[in-house]
Amino acid sequence: MQAFDGVTVLDLTHHIVGPYATKLLADFGADVIKVEPPEGDIARTLPPFQGDEAHPEKSGLFFLLNTNKRSVVLDLRTEDGRAGLARLAAGADLVVENFSPGTLERLGCGWEFFRQANPNICMLSISNFGQDGPYRDYKATELVMYGFAGEMYTMGRTDREPVKMAGTAALFESGSAAAVAAAGLLTGARRHGIAQRADVAIAETHFGGVDRRHAAGIAYQFSGRRSQRAAGAAGGMPSGIYQVADGYVDFTNAGLHADRVVDMIGEEWAQDSRYQDPLARMNPALIDEWNAQFIVWCLSRTKREVWTEARRAKVMCGPLFTVQDLFEDEHFRGRGFWQTVEHPVMGPVEIPGRPFIMQEGGWAIRRPAPLLGQHTAELLTAGV
Predict the structure, then answer these.
(1) Backbone phi, psi, residue 42, to 5°
(2) Beta strands in 113-246 (DSSP E)
(3) Is residue 333 in a domain?
(4) What is the domain range of residue 238?
(5) Residue 317 belongs to domain with CATH number
(6) φ, ψ at 144 (rounded to 5°)
(7) Quick check: 139 and 110 in contact, CB under 8 A?
(8) DSSP string of 107-123?
(9) 54, 90, 59, 88: which is closest to 71 by C-alpha?
């Protein structure tokens, strides 16, 4: 048994946020029917591609985001497409969409369309800034969204422009929030018999949780205090990112415990009394002097060696692993995190596994990401 056994979801989403939300439902048991346009989800066109071959069935991004789903191709601009959608909706519990606000209504497939097809169906709408309000029709990218509602203001060096988190991490965070909203809709419908529509704005998920933004927002609201960008490895003794023999490590608030840092380094120079004086430790010249010696210590060790010494001495430190490091990591391998999935075009593919462990009703891979339209005939002939 899985947590969402018996739940049928119509997935009208594309790209990252919506598909990740519905992937979580699918991986925990829901029957997710992915409704794609004739050209397919745009994620099918995005890298990385297996063998660097741009192919709609070889996108690693699409594969990861759509495990355990079935694919139906419907052109919602046509009467036949809308009729097929209504038929699928009649047997579904939830529909999830992330079109621009008003798009489904213009196609004749809005909230009332689904309510007529199935009075008990719930609907989750995901958009950049919500279904109404002054920003409703604004377009956005992951960079724009992170700058607008994320913590980009405090990211980067003090002498350079701000930066955002790497890749599309913030969009996956938003997908997680949308999945929680979907679970809330399903719970309300089952316990109270109420079919509701939820409006999830990606910007609000960033305001409320991505990378310290909520704490910074509350601080400014109540005190007017603006968060500042840290100076990086130029201060803290140590603080920030340092290069080591095979990459980089990150020290956070390590300088608050000078005795632990001395224990971690284990060399005579680190015991200099000047480095233990709290006031002296604020002197930029002394920080530079200390860092010059500490960098030599770091460069003579690998990130795992530095990490091991830091943990022993109870210094807050973490290695900056590459994707290859994570893929080969003994801990992840030992925990069974990586899972092999057989795909009809790509063959066996290893992907990240469960995001968390549940006591009951947990995560499982039942099928790979679907081929475009793979289940169209099956579902439209036999229904859901």
Answers:
(1) -60, -25
(2) 122-127, 197-201, 240-244
(3) no
(4) 232-321
(5) 3.30.1540.10
(6) -60, -45
(7) no
(8) HT-SHHHHHHH-TT-EE
(9) 88
- Distance, in Å, from the CA atom of 198 to the CA atom of 42, rounded to the nearest integer, reads 24
Q: Residue 128: CB partners within 8 Å, gap ≥ 6?
A: 135, 138, 139, 140, 145, 201, 202, 203
Taking residues 96-113, report their average pLDDT: 97
Question: What is the structure's pLDDT at 93?
Answer: 98
CB burial string 29-56: b at 16+ within 10 A, e below: bbbbbbbbbeebbebbebeebbeeeeeb
Please state the domain count of the chain: 2
Q: Which has the higher per-residue pLDDT, 22 or 162? A: 22
User: Residues 354, 358, 359, 363: what is their CA dihedral angle, to the nearest 10 degrees?
Assistant: -50
First to last CA, the chain: 20
Of 1, 86, 51, nearest in space to 384 by CA = 86
**Do 151 and 241 sit in the same domain of this protein?**
no
Last residue in a domain, options 303, 321, 339 = 321
**Do 205 and 56 share a domain, yes or no?**
yes
- Region 201-223: mean pLDDT is 83
* Contact assessment for residue 36 and residue 47, using Cβ atoms and an 8 Å cutoff: no
SS3 content of the chain, % helix, strand, coil (to 5): 45, 15, 40
Q: pLDDT (tens digit, 9 = 90+) per residue, 114-123?
A: 999 999 999 9
Q: Beta partners for 36?
A: 73
The answer to whether the CB of 361 falls within 8 A of the CB of 29 is yes
Separation of alpha carbons 202 and 220, rounded Å = 21
Which of 169-178, 230-239, 249-258 has the highest average model confidence (pLDDT)?
169-178
pLDDT confidence of residue 248? 96
Residue matched to tokens 């949308």: 178
Q: Do the beta carbons of residue 314 and residue 257 sit within 8 Å?
A: yes
